[in-house]
Amino acid sequence: TFRNAASLEVFAIGTVTLGGTIKENDTVTITITTADSNGTAVNTAYKYTILKTDTLDTVVAALVKMINVPGDANVTARPNLSTEGIVLTAKKGGSPGASVAYSTAVSTSAQITSTAGGTSLTLNLQDAARVAPGSLITLFGTNLSEGTEATSFDRPSLPFTLANTQLFIDGLPAPLTFVSPTQISAQLGYEVDGRNSVSAYLRTVRSDGRVLVSNPQAVSVVSANPGIFALDGTDPRPGRVYHAFANATGIVSVDGTITAGDTGVLTIQGAANPYTYVVVATDTLASVRDRFIAMINADDSSPVTATAGNVFTRILLQAKIAGPDSNGITYSTSVTKGTGLIFSAFSPKLCCANSGGGEVTDANPAVPGEILYVLTTGLGQTVLGIDTGKIASTTSGGRDGGQDSTTDAPLTPVDSILAGGQTGNILFTGYEPGLVGVYRVTFQLSTAVTPNAQTQLTIAQQFFVSNVVTFPVQNP
Question: What is the pTM for the complete model shown?
Answer without folding.
Answer: 0.82
